Amino acid sequence: MASLSRLLTAFVLASLAFSTPAVAGNSHDRTQFGHDVTVGADEEVSEVTCFGCSVRVRGNVAGDVTTFGGTILVEDGGQIAGDLTSFGGDVRLDSGSEVQSITVFGGKIRRDPRASVSGDVTTFAGGSALWLFLIFGLPFLLLGGIIWLIVWLVRRFSQPRVPMTARV
């Protein structure tokens, strides 16, 4: 029980440490956990990654935009030179927006006819709850099963053996 408490405390501390914006030196990457990201009309960033939040692009993104559990909105004049990928969220392209390619798992694409997509558009829409489970839930279930197996094996082989007494 104490190890579970320590593990939970470590997880909470790691979550708090990563909940602030992660910005590396001069890379102009934006990574957020739980806070929406907005790329302004006069801004240019390299990459945008968002966990549990949404991304709004009004300016230029030189690389990829990826969200896990959030939507991506590319407004008029917004440009994404790389791939746009959404896991468990919707994508909306307004008139005059430009994107290289789009991949959506468990969400919908709303695309204005005047929006430009120069590459592929791929959607895995059927049953968003199923996709979210497969992407996020199944790995946690497998990890939980492995941890349970390890705990069970350690408990089984660390218990002292009680010798059997002869019946008289």
Strand content: 25-35%
**Silhouette:** elongated
Please describe the biggest sheet, giving its number of strands, its sense, and whether it closes into a barrel: 9 strands, parallel
Q: Round the Cα radius of gyration to an integer and report it.
A: 23 Å
Give the total of beta strands.
14
Helix-residue proportion: 25-40%
The helix/strand order is HEEEEEEEEEEEEEEH
How many structural domains can be distinguished in the coordinates?
A: 2
pLDDT under 50 segments (min length 5)? 19-26
Distance between the termini: 41 Å
Report on the architecture of this protein.
- The chain has 168 residues and is α/β, with parallel strands linked by helices.
- It has 2 domains: 9-126, no CATH class; 127-160.
- Helix content is 29%, strand content 32%.
- It is built from 2 helices and 14 strands, in the order αββββββββββββββα.
- Strands 1, 3, 4, 6, 7, 9, 11, 13 and 14 form a 9-stranded parallel β-sheet that branches. The protein has a 5-stranded parallel β-sheet with strand order 2-5-8-10-12, with no helix packed on it.
- The radius of gyration is 23 Å and the shape is elongated.
- Residues 19-26 have low confidence and may be disordered.
Task: Give me some keywords for this one.
nine-stranded parallel sheet; five-stranded parallel sheet; elongated; 2 domains; 168 residues; alpha/beta
Topology readout:
Layout: H1 2-18, E1 30-33, E2 37-39, E3 44-45, E4 48-51, E5 55-57, E6 60-61, E7 65-68, E8 72-74, E9 79-87, E10 91-93, E11 98-105, E12 109-111, E13 116-117, E14 121-124, H2 128-158
Parallel strand pairs: 1-4, 2-5, 3-6, 4-7, 5-8, 6-9, 7-9, 8-10, 9-11, 10-12, 11-13, 11-14
